[in-house]
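Colleagues,

Please find the record for the three-part complex below.
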Amino acid sequence: MTPIPLNHFVIFSLFLFSIGLYGTLTRRNVIGILMGIELMLNAANINLIAFSRYISPNPETGQIFVIFVIVLAACAAAVGLAIVLAMYQNRKTVQAEDIHILKW
Amino acid sequence: MAYAYLIPVFPFIAFLIIIFNGKRLKHQSAAIAIGGSLLAAAVSTVVILNTLKGATYSHTFEWIRIGTFSLNFGILIDPLTAMMLFVVTYVGSMIFIYSVGYMHEDPRFSRFFAYLSLFMASMLGLVLSSHYVQLFIFWELVGLCSYFLIGFWFEKPSAAKAGMKAFITTKIGDVGFLIGLFLLFTCAGTLQFKDFTPEFLAAKTQAGGGLFALAAILIFAGACGKSAQFPLHVWLPDAMEGPTPVSALIHAATMVAAGVYLVARSFVLFAQFPQALEVVAVIGTITAFMAAFIALTATDIKKVLAYSTISQLGYMMAALGLGGFSAGTFHLMTHAFFKALLFLGAGSVIHGTQTQDLREMGGLFPRMKITSLTFLVAALAISGVPPLSGFFSKDEILLTAYESGSRVIFLILLVTSFMTAFYMFRLFVLAFLGKPRKKIHAHESPAVMTVPLSVLALFSAVLGIPGSPYWNHWFQGFIHGGHAQEIHVNLFVVKCSVAAAFSGIALAVILYRFLPKVPEWLAKIFKPLYLVSYNKFWLDELYQLIFIGPFKKISQLLFRFDAVIVDGAVNQSAVQTVNLSALKNWFDQHIVDGTVNGVAWITQRMSRILRKLQTGLIQNYLLILLLGLLFTIVIGFYR
Amino acid sequence: MSTLSLIIFLPVLGMIGVLLTPKTEVQAIRRIATIVSAVVCALCTFLLFRFTASQPGMQFVEKIAWIPQINVFYHLGVDGISVPMIFITGLLSLLACVASYGIKERVKEYFALYLLLETGMLGTFCALDLFLFYVFWEVVLVPMYFLIGIWGGPRKEYAAIKFFLYTLAGSIFMLLGILALYFASTPHTFDITVLSVNHAFALGFQKLVFLALFLGFAIKVPIWPFHTWLPDAHVEAPTPISVLLAGILLKMGTYGFFRISYPILPDAARWFGIYMAILAVIGIVYGGFVSLAQTDFKKMIAYSSVSHMGFVLLGLAVFNYSGFDGALLQMFNHGTITGGLFLLVGVLYDRTHTRDLSSFGGLGARIPVYAGMLTVFSLASLGLPGLSGFVGEFLTLLGSFVTYRWAAAVSCLGVVLAACYLLWMIQRVLLGPLNIQWKSIAEINRRELFTLIPLLVIIVFVGIFPQVILNLFGPTTHALVNALGGISQ
């Protein structure tokens, strides 16, 4: 069985990243945006694994990175969701365009 | 004669005692003053007796020394000094005694005697001086006493004013005197009287004596002021505001004669320069005539006497100016006695009648016999009736004038002599003869006043004898320092003189005693002349117009100049500084600070535009981020 | 501590004492000030007698390095020119201090400033270092400003500011002159005695420096036309301050000529002599005329000061023995006479609260002792022989007659004018009918007499025995005249 060529992984991750980016930029709902961000992170993870498997002389490096990213993504999601919850409690909305208190 | 310095010391001590204890002493102060003057008279008598024997004395000490320049003051006693000592102490003592009666009721009685004593001390210091500057010092002091005594009744504004007028008018002359002294000092190098001998002057003036003559004339300016010579005579009539004994002592007998004394003292200097002598003679003659002319119409008894004094002083000056040293000094001496007597007599009249206006008097003879008789003696003496003292001295002056060759001066002096006799007897007739024109309770003065009158009358009568041909002109020889003088009697002059005197007396008696309407009628006919005389040649008004008025104007003008221009410049510079700083303030606020604020303003405006990017929408930011990334990538590819 | 330093700094000690006293203890404050002034006066008198007059040159010298980096020394010393000035300063300070008992408000500040002023004045007359001289000169200025500005009359702020700024403007020029001298000398020095000996400055430079110093001194004297601060300051200042102003501060200006301008810049001094004589004559006559126009008693005396200080300048301008001696004597006399006149004006003002000459009249009969005092001081001021004013004027005129005849002749007009305005003043105040408004006016009291008698004694004494005081400064002034190449007469 021939292994799946590296190109496929890269193209797949590109699609995944684009979907995530699109979601992040277009979703009105903050939770949707968070989900988009997760997608982009995972696209990056796939790339890391793939390159580590095919190119790197030291395959463990990429895996370690990925594990770090997963952990951080989990943390980021937890913090992000907590923020969303707090925001909802205060402003009764989770729509991104309604939240512009950082504007000057 | 070292004790001579005591002469002025006695009256000065009296002055000190009285001025510091005036309140306590009251009428005792008169005793102290008289004591002082009598002691001075006693010592003077001893000095005079020594001088008569031919002794002279001089002693100097150093007053100021600066480098090589020094002022050596001291005492100089010669015949001239002796004569002055005689006049001052004798007349002075008589007047002191008289004043006890005259001033008895005055609240400032002791002050009066203090001033009199101070005057006596200063006057004696003046005549004893051996140095011009020393003389000048006492000269000013007698002027000061005169100022105090003229203004003695200072509550009267006219008296206060008269004192000031006297002081300032004489001060003008004194300034001339002072400049003259400076000039004399720079030319001659000394101001000691005894250094001025004809030989010394001849040596000094070999290269031309113009400056010496000028110095002499300037010194004469001082004498003009003090002796009330034209044109500085205007203060003396006003000085009659003072108490009458003062008028007698200061403004008739002694102080006003100081000017004559000064010229006599400087006679060697004057004699060296005919120009200077000429000035003295002309001024003296003008003064003598003018004052006598004014005296013709004066109605105030003291004013008549004042003008008479000015006139007689003019006589003395004229005599000196014509070279008649002994004539001038002789007349000085005789005049002191009979003029003091006239004033004291007038004072007695004023004391008895409480008026000074001749038109209110009349018929006093029966009620004031001693006063009237002594007054008559003095009036005859001044008119030049032989053999009274005035005749001999005046005759010698006329003789000098006649022999000097100047007929004009001789004639003027002769006419003046006639006028003198006329106004004196006009005064006598109006005051003593006829009937009282007003109801006045005249009474004879007390003995303390009449005794001095009698003593003075005696002197007035006989004092001419020593200078008369009967004594072989002894006085003239004495005053010239023992050199017998050749004086030949000129009968023509004697006749003229006697004729003038008697015609004057006769005319006055006829006009005022028997034909009282005629003077009024004459006044109407000669109205211009009458007005000139009555208004004293309008000299006071003229001075007011050309000196006093302009001086006040100038002072006001300069004051305004000071306030507006000089001070204005100072204030303007301050104001301009303030204005300049206001301008700088504006520049600072608007230009300098404006630049700073402008930068801030521009920054603010720019940021207002840029902040539009800050939407607060996170997706916008992300989009921009993305675009930026893409842009960077594109740039990266195309590099 | 040596004599001069003691004299100068005792008043500062007194000032500290006054400042430590509670301000309610008015009596104690006055006592401290009076005692200190009296001790200073006694020390000044002691100095006067210990001073060896026959010997020209500096005595009682003290010299300590102060700021060695720029060669500044604490250098004090006195000669025949400064000794009479120090004496009159000590005396007038004591008398004016006693006359200050009339000050009722803010007594503590008053006496503190007063004592500081005294230090400044004494220091100015003792300093032999230009830097030190300038410091003391300015020390005088500040207390004077407050003394006029706080305790003065209705227009006190105007007068005080005018005085301060005008004098300060002058001293700026003076400072420039001092610095020019410092940088022109090699090695750089502020020492007056050193600068006086080595005067090898070029004439052009001398002229410039002389002009700069002249401005500083002329404003202080005041020389016409820099005199207009004087009437304002005098009219507004309280009586004792007027006394010090007229009696001492004005002399600081002419003293400056004697001490600094003449010895250091002799060529320029000779060159400017004629111009100074012209200004002096203008001042004499002009001051006389303007005095004549005054209706305010104090203002009249203030303008008479312009005239009298003109005589000092005239004497200064003629470069001969009598002129210099006359000028110095006139400085001394003006201090005593005009000081006394201001005290007398104050006496009258305390009783009547007016200085308008036309509102008096006939006071001579009511208050004879006061009248006598006023008359004697006025007569001294108009130069009556026998009183001190005459000797000063006589010597000055004599000296100027030797050099500039016309100047002496024109100045004599000033003598006549002095007689006019002073006698007219006497007539308006003392003579004539009594103004009924003052019928119960009180006679001069014992304290006031105490302030006048010493001056009177000096006036009479100097008038009769002038040689005593002439001997005091003669050797010094004559040495100065010789150094200047003047006429030894």
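Residues 60-91 of chain A form the longest helix (32 residues).

Comments are welcome before we finalize the supplementary table.
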